[in-house]
Write a structure and sequence with these properties.
The complex is a heterodimer. By secondary structure, chain A is mainly α. Chain A has helices spanning 7-15, 22-31, 38-46, 49-62, 73-80, 82-95, 109-129, 138-144, 148-152, 158-169, 175-183, 187-197, 202-209, 220-241, 252-260, 265-286, and strands at 101-102, 107-108. Chain A folds into 2 domains: 7-17 and 101-286, Hypothetical protein af1432 (Orthogonal Bundle); 20-96, no CATH class. Chain B is α/β, with parallel strands linked by helices. Helices cover 43% and strands 20% of the residues of chain B. Classes of the chains: A mainly alpha, B alpha/beta.
Chain lengths: 287, 274
């Protein structure tokens, strides 16, 4: 069969990414449990000195402005929450895989990272405000939702990029549907392959694959990543225009998603605010 | 180079004539994206050259390759889930009762692409109706494309295809790992017979069926072709049989012989009693 994109080559590329450190895999699998064991989580991180150092550095960035520094893994976990800490751990592992820009998509590394972090902070906030429980991995799911672009982007030739662009404009459809139409594969699915290669828990695999089509995922985490992604895009726009995005602009689809997550309209401003604040704190320290 | 209007018209009328699929002019980017790989595979540098070869001769096999490249092969295991819930909870139990004397059920799965849909039906049968394993149950799956049929018969799927809807317990039970791919076990594979069939052909050669799956196919056809296909389904479907169409498809205003029944949020169609 003559195909425009060899799907087996995409699967191979995902499987050839370096494996995650044992500590990161162990941590996410502990957090995927219904009642994660706090002491065990501390032990897993402390067992890896380099990870502990990186975590404390990032944790101090995230709570920037506090008079007291975070000096232990235990303290970081109490102050930031286990979900956020796991996300930071994952972030330290993943950031090294990103070059100057995401190939094919042409997204500069910083922009990709800022969007990933904004989605992570929004996801964590959605989890906190939601009347439903979606597990401890919302932050990590948000952080990794676009990870598939790292692999899929490598296959996007000039021709493919041009057809994708036309599929969005002339086909009047969002980017992920254009990918599905032209490539018979979208970046969420490519991300799912990476998450499986890293042996991440099933809820993360689903949260990544279905972040654009949560209704197909049959898991609350898919709605979390979907809404968080939309809010993160708004937060990025605010950053560039200086104008807040009014709640009234929320699409019908997102209103339905909020209802599914047990969120009230007033929660939206808190979530936007949390995403914005989290992002500013991290950026201020890293600039 | 963008596709010339006359070349687009040539391709779209060929595809319409051979497969019934309607290509609107605003989908010219899709035609380009599907046909440039075909042109390059033939050692040609552009779609214009490909079309020129096709105009010169209809005997070089290019026409079939082009039609196959333009046929959407999107499919997945348990696609949309609800029809398979309806099949499992209502349609099959009912059919097993009705056919208790002849102990035979015939299922036809049209436009079956790379086989995920007929294999899903086969897995539902193995998983939930094992007590009827001594019945003569036949699943005939058909498609227009030689290439996708070859893949379907092989029953090998990438991790990507597996991720699209196959529940983990069924993966472990009915598939074996082959390198980075998964191969469906013979116990499921042998339940499905794949045949080549163009829905536009005058004779289908499909035996009378108790259950017909023809999902997400009618949407690609014009109204007159939809009517013709539904008329031919009427001739294949047994009087108390059941037809599953895609979620966005209907028989309404096309063929009044069918009436819609909803089971498990899935629409299925039965022939009206005369």
């Amino acid at each position: 069969m003559i195909v425009i994109l060899d799907h087996n080559a995409v699967v191979d590329a995902a499987n050839k990414l370096p494996p995650l450190p044992q500590s990161a895999m162990r941590l996410t699998s502990l957090l995927a449990r219904e009642e994660p064991d706090f002491r065990e989580i501390v032990k897993v991180i402390e067992y890896d000195p380099s990870l502990t150092m990186k975590l404390l550095k990032i944790a101090n960035s995230a709570v920037g402005g506090r008079s007291q520094r975070i000096g232990s893994v235990h303290q970081a976990l109490v102050l930031l929450g286990t979900g956020t800490v796991a996300g930071f751990v994952m972030g330290t592992c993943v950031r090294s895989l990103i070059g100057e820009q995401i190939p094919g998509y042409g997204i500069p590394e910083k922009e990709f990272w800022v969007h990933s972090l904004a989605t992570a902070f929004a996801a964590e906030s959605i989890q906190a405000h939601s009347s439903k429980w979606h597990g401890t991995l919302a932050f990590t799911a948000g952080l990794l939702h676009d990870i598939g672009k790292l692999v899929l982007g490598r296959f996007l030739s000039v021709d493919l990029c041009s057809w994708l662009e036309r599929a969005i404009i002339e086909g009047k459809q969002p980017a992920f549907l254009a990918e599905r139409e032209i490539l018979s594969l979208h970046h969420g699915e490519a991300g799912g392959l990476i998450a499986q290669h890293w042996e991440l828990p099933d809820c993360l695999v689903k949260g990544i694959i279905y972040h654009h089509s949560p209704e197909d995922g049959e898991d609350g985490i898919c709605y979390v990543t979907h809404l968080a992604n939309a809010i993160a895009h708004e937060v990025a726009n605010e950053g560039s225009t200086g104008m807040p995005s009014p709640s009234a602009r929320l699409s019908e689809n997102l209103v339905a998603v909020m209802a599914k997550l047990g969120l009230a309209e007033k929660d939206l401003d808190y979530i936007r605010n949390d995403a914005s604040k989290g992002l500013q704190a991290v950026s201020a320290q890293s600039d | 180079m963008p596709l010339d209007t006359t070349d687009f018209d040539f391709v779209s009328s060929l595809v319409l004539k051979r497969s019934g699929i309607v290509l609107e002019p605003e989908k010219s980017y899709l035609v380009e994206s599907r046909l440039l790989p075909v042109a390059r595979h033939e050692g040609l540098s552009s779609i214009a050259e490909l079309v020129s070869r096709m105009r010169a001769s209809s005997l070089n096999g290019l026409h079939q390759k082009v039609v196959e490249a333009m046929t959407t092969n999107e499919t997945s295991f348990f696609r949309d889930l609800n029809p398979f819930e309806a099949l499992r909870k209502v349609v099959l139990p009912e059919m097993f009762q009705r056919r208790a004397v002849e102990r035979r059920i015939q299922i036809w799965c049209g436009a079956s692409s790379t086989g995920q849909e007929p294999y899903t039906i086969a897995m539902v049968l193995r998983e939930y109706f094992a007590a009827h394993s001594d019945w003569r149950i036949s699943i005939i799956a058909t498609d227009l494309s030689t290439d996708v049929l070859a893949r379907a018969r092989e029953g090998r799927y990438s991790q990507l295809e597996i991720n699209r809807g196959l529940p983990a317990p069924l993966l472990l039970k009915y598939f074996q790992r082959h390198g980075t791919e998964w191969k469906i076990k013979d116990e499921v594979r042998k339940l499905v017979e794949f045949r080549q069939l163009n829905l536009l052909d005058s004779a289908w050669g499909i035996p009378a069926a108790d259950i017909v799956f023809l999902r997400n196919v009618l949407i690609y056809f014009d109204v007159s072709t939809k009517k013709t296909i539904l008329r031919k389904i009427r001739q294949v479907l047994r009087a108390d049989g059941c037809l599953f169409l895609g979620g966005a498809e209907t028989t309404m205003n096309l063929d009044d012989s069918f009436e819609r029944t909803t089971f498990e949020r899935a629409g299925c169609y039965r022939l009206r009693k005369t």
